[in-house]
Design goal:
It is a single chain. The chain is of the alpha/beta class. The chain has 23 helices and 14 strands. The chain has a four-stranded mixed sheet with strand order 1-2-3-4. Strands 5-6-9 form a three-stranded antiparallel sheet. The protein has a three-stranded mixed sheet with strand order 13-12-14, with no helix packed on it. Strand 12 and strand 13 form a beta hairpin. Helix 1 runs parallel beside helix 7. It is elongated, with a radius of gyration of 33 Å. The protein starts with a helix and ends with a helix. The model has no long low-confidence stretch (mean pLDDT 94).
Length: 556
C-alpha cells in the first residue's frame, strides 16, 4: 500500500484536494497595506475581559488601516467545553461594545462573508483534506496510543526531568509500517492522526514578532495530534488551515501562544504557505501577594464582562482602559483630547505595535474607575438619564419606576453640575446613580433610616435656628446662584460666622466659624449628606415645601 492509498483509507469522505480550496478561497483583492485580522473565541461560557481585549486590539488595527478586514471565527472543536447557545451569548455580550465586524460569525448560525464557514465544526472536510495531503507526503500518521499510555509516558518524562511531548523514543506509533497501520485500522482500532514532524530540536529557527522583535527558537520536533478521534482538528492544525484560507495577514493574540511559534511556522512551511505576521500582546494580569498572575475567570469577578454590565460601567470606558494598557503614549493623548475637546473617543486613538510593551499588563480597577468617572462627566443629562434608566430596568426595577414617575424631575436631578467647565466626576457607573442622589427622591428619602452627621456646628438648638431662619427669611426659589450665595453669607453673619472662609482664617477668634459651616448644616439637614453636588441647585430643585418637611423630619 502506498501513501495515497493509505490516505484514502484514513479519509474516505474527502472529495477534494487542496487546490480546490485554494481556488474557492482566493487571495483577497486588497491593497498591500491592508490588514486582515481576526478574533477566534470559543463558545465556552461567559464573555471574558481577555476576549474583549482580543476583539478590540484586532478590530482596532483593522479599523485604523484603510480597506482592512476584521472577521470573527468561532473555534468550537472542543465539544466538551462548549455550552448551549454559547455563540449567541458571546455575540450578544460583545454587541455592547463598539466593535466593527466586517466578516464572519455575527450570531447563532449567522455568518457574513465569502471565506466561510467561519465556524470550525462546519469545516471538517476542509481540515481532513489538508490532513490527507500530509499523509500522502509521509508527514502524518495514525497513532493508536491509549490515554493511559500517554499519561504514563508524561509522568515518566516529568520524573526523569526530560522534555515533555510525543517525540523520538516516546513517539511509539511513528514508525509503524503503512501495511501494519492499515490492518489495525481495518480491525477497528481507535486512532488519532499525528503530524510526523521533520524538525530537529538541536537546530534553531528565527522569528520576528511585531511586538517582541526577533527571537531564536529550537526547531519544533514533536508529533502533535492534528485530527482527533472525533474527526475534528486540534487548535494548532485548524489555525493553520483557517488563517491561510481566510487569508489572514496578521495574527494578534495573547502571549501564552508565543511558545507555539516554532510549530506554527513549521506547519506553514510544510504546505509551502506564507505565514501571516504575528504579534503577541501581553496578558492582563493581577497583583497578588507581591507577584503578578494572569487575570483569572475563576478567581477574579472583574474578569467577567457581566461584572461591568451589572455595575453599569460604560463599555466605552473599558475600551479606553484597554487602549491605555496597550500603548505607552495613551496617557498623553487622553489628557490632550480631554483638554482640547472635553471628551475622548477611543476610535480616534491610533494603536502602534512599536508602543506595545512585552511585560504583562497589570489590571488596575481604580484606574478604570477614574476613566469611567471622566467619561460619564462628559455625557449630557439626557444621555445619563437614558443609560441609567436602561441599566435600572435590568438590575434595579424599583429605581427605574422612580425615575420614570417624573422624568422631567429625574433629569433635573441628574443634570446638577452636568456640563460646564468643571462637571461633576463622582459617578463611575450607572449602577451608582441611585446611591449618589437617593436623597433627592421622596420615595427613597422617606423609606430610609436617616443618619445626620453634623460637623463643626453640632448644637441642635443652633442648627434648628439656622435652618428655620434660612427657610423663613432667606429662601426664595426664584433666586439665581449669586443671589442665593449672598443670602447664605448674610445668614452666616447673622449667627456670628464669617462671610468668607479666608476672612475666618485671617481672624479665627472673631468668629464662631465660616460660611462653609453654615452651608454644611443646611446640606446635612436637607440631604443627610456631608458632601453633595451643588447645594444651590439641590435646594432650588427640592423647593420650600420639601425643605421644610425635611427640616421637620430631622427632629432637631
Amino acid at each position: 500500500m502506498n501513501n495515497l492509498e493509505f490516505a484514502n483509507l484514513l479519509f474516505p469522505d474527502v472529495k477534494h484536494d487542496i487546490a480546490y480550496y485554494e481556488e474557492k478561497y482566493p487571495p483577497r483583492n486588497l491593497p498591500e497595506t491592508a490588514l486582515v485580522t481576526r478574533s477566534a473565541p470559543s463558545p465556552t461560557g461567559f464573555l471574558h475581559l481577555g476576549t474583549v481585549y482580543n476583539f478590540f486590539v484586532n478590530q482596532k488595527f483593522a479599523r485604523q488601516t484603510k480597506d482592512s478586514v476584521f472577521y470573527i471565527r468561532i473555534e468550537d472543536t472542543d465539544k466538551k467545553r462548549e455550552v448551549e447557545n454559547g455563540v449567541a451569548s458571546l455575540m450578544h455580550d460583545i454587541s455592547f461594545f463598539d466593535i466593527k465586524i466586517n466578516e464572519g460569525v455575527i450570531g447563532q448560525d449567522k455568518e457574513i462573508g465569502n471565506y466561510g464557514p467561519y465556524t470550525q465544526s462546519k469545516r471538517g472536510e476542509i481540515y481532513r483534506t489538508f490532513a490527507k495531503y500530509l499523509v500522502t507526503q509521509g508527514l502524518a500518521y495514525p497513532c493508536f496510543c491509549s490515554e493511559e499510555s500517554l499519561t504514563n509516558d508524561h509522568n515518566v518524562q516529568i520524573a526523569a526531568k526530560e522534555r515533555q511531548g510525543y517525540y523520538g523514543k516516546w513517539a511509539h506509533c511513528r514508525n509503524i509500517s503503512i501495511d501494519d497501520a492499515a490492518e489495525r485500522i481495518k480491525n477497528g482500532e481507535k486512532y488519532i492522526v499525528r503530524l510526523k514532524s521533520p524538525g530537529n530540536y538541536s537546530r534553531k529557527i528565527k522569528h520576528k514578532d511585531l511586538i517582541r522583535g526577533e527571537t531564536e527558537f529550537p526547531e519544533h520536533d514533536i508529533d502533535i495530534p492534528i485530527i482527533k478521534s472525533d474527526n475534528l482538528p486540534t487548535y494548532h492544525f485548524a489555525h493553520l488551515v483557517d488563517d491561510h484560507l481566510m487569508r489572514t495577514t496578521h495574527v494578534i493574540r495573547g502571549e501564552e501562544w508565543y511558545p507555539s511559534m516554532p510549530l506554527h511556522i513549521q506547519l506553514f512551511n510544510l504546505f509551502g504557505f506564507k505565514p501571516p505576521k504575528y504579534a503577541h500582546v501581553p496578558c492582563l494580569s493581577k497583583e497578588e501577594n507581591g507577584s503578578k498572575r494572569k487575570l483569572s475567570k475563576r478567581k477574579d469577578p472583574e474578569a467577567a464582562v457581566s461584572y461591568y454590565h451589572e455595575k453599569g460601567i460604560p463599555t466605552d470606558t473599558i475600551l479606553l482602559y484597554i487602549a491605555n494598557l496597550l500603548n505607552s503614549n495613551f496617557e498623553d493623548w487622553y489628557n490632550k483630547e480631554f483638554k482640547e475637546k472635553g471628551q475622548v473617543n477611543v476610535n480616534d486613538f491610533m494603536l502602534d505595535f512599536k508602543k506595545i510593551g512585552t511585560s504583562s499588563m497589570l489590571f488596575d480597577l481604580e484606574k478604570l474607575t477614574n476613566i469611567a468617572k471622566n467619561y460619564i462627566s462628559t455625557l449630557t443629562t439626557d444621555e445619563v438619564f437614558n443609560k441609567t434608566l436602561a441599566h435600572a430596568k435590568i438590575y434595579n426595577s424599583s429605581f427605574a419606576t422612580i425615575l420614570e414617575k417624573d422624568i422631567a424631575y429625574s433629569k433635573k436631578i441628574l443634570g446638577i453640575e452636568r456640563g460646564g467647565v468643571k462637571p461633576r466626576k463622582d459617578i463611575a457607573a450607572f449602577g451608582e446613580v441611585e446611591e449618589s442622589c437617593w436623597y433627592m427622591f421622596d420615595e427613597l428619602f422617606n423609606a430610609r433610616e436617616l443618619n445626620y452627621q453634623f460637623q463643626n456646628i453640632s448644637d441642635k438648638n443652633e442648627i434648628e435656628k439656622i435652618v428655620s431662619t434660612y427657610l423663613e427669611k432667606y429662601f426664595d426659589g426664584n433666586d439665581d446662584k449669586d443671589t442665593w450665595f449672598e443670602k447664605i453669607k448674610k445668614l452666616s453673619e447673622e449667627f456670628g460666622y464669617a462671610r468668607e472662609v479666608k476672612e475666618y482664617k485671617n481672624n479665627p477668634s472673631a468668629f464662631k466659624g465660616h460660611v462653609g459651616d453654615i452651608s454644611t448644616v443646611l446640606r446635612v439637614v436637607f440631604t443627610t449628606q456631608n458632601q453633595t453636588p451643588d447645594l444651590y441647585e439641590i435646594t432650588k430643585l427640592l423647593g420650600k415645601q420639601r425643605l421644610s418637611e425635611r427640616a421637620n423630619k430631622a427632629k432637631l
